[in-house]
Design brief:
The two termini are 34 Å apart. It is globular and about 50 Å long. Strands 3-4-5-8 form a four-stranded parallel beta sheet, with helices on both faces. It is 39% helix and 14% strand. The longest helix has 23 residues, at 134-156. It is built from seven helices and eight strands. It is of the alpha/beta class.
């Protein structure tokens, strides 16, 4: 059973629902990650569908929204805005943590659960050579810290949950579209390839040695 949480069901998701495995796909739409009560309701909806959660993939993210958040991504200090920064941090860091909280009991019910927080290499503090993109960089760094902190709690409480941050590479999506010009052709991944690569990494994660790590699309560690 797969539970998909989304703002609205895309045509691709609707097509999957109508396909041969559609009965195993449960869509929870109208999920507003800026609203804590909505996150709680979405987690409850998942809990009503499945007795346990074996894998939780937090893949929502925000880099730019010129219409509603014109300062993002900020290239200079002068462009910083508390409203836009808060929006970015909420979607990229706070919401994933709250969703994990809401699904914690279902994760603990699994024999071996994994939580994957979709991060980005630009969230690496040690790898920050260019600057800019203040909110996106900082919110992904915050997400990585949450990943590490969760891994320590799960270990101390002896919970059967492995959590990692995962950098998918530069994917050919709307998020990266305005910034693809300088990306080498072999490093701009089609969505299908990006998903294959990420699934390969996820399937290879070892709970005892990889919990709390920040990995890239090839399974290599990324500098914090």
């Amino acid at each position: 059973t797969v539970c998909a949480l989304c703002r609205s069901a895309s045509p691709a998701l609707q097509e999957l629902q109508q396909g041969p495995h559609g009965a195993a796909l449960h869509v929870v739409d109208s999920v507003d990650l800026l609203d804590e009560s909505c996150i709680e309701e979405a987690a409850a909806a998942v809990g009503s569908c499945v007795p346990r959660v074996d894998a939780l993939l937090n893949v929502a993210g925000l880099l730019h929204d010129k219409k509603n958040l014109p300062s993002l991504p900020e290239t200079t200090l002068e462009k910083l805005s508390l409203r836009d920064m808060t929006h970015c941090f909420t979607l990229n860091a706070f919401a994933p943590a709250l969703l994990i909280k809401g699904l914690a009991k279902r994760l603990y019910a699994s024999e071996r659960a994994i939580v994957v927080n979709l991060s980005a290499r630009v969230g690496s503090i040690g790898d920050n050579r260019l600057g800019g993109w203040y909110s996106y960089r900082a919110s992904k760094a915050a997400l990585n810290q949450l990943t590490k902190t969760l891994s320590r709690e799960f270990a101390i409480r002896r919970k059967p949950v492995t959590v990692i941050s995962l950098h998918p590479g530069t994917c050919d999506t709307g998020l990266s579209k305005p910034y693809q010009r300088g990306v080498p052709a072999d490093k701009l991944f089609p969505v299908e390839l990006a998903v294959e690569q990420m699934l390969r990494v996820i399937e290879g994660v070892q709970p005892k040695t990889d919990c709390g790590k920040f990995l890239d699309w090839a399974g290599e560690p990324v500098q914090w």
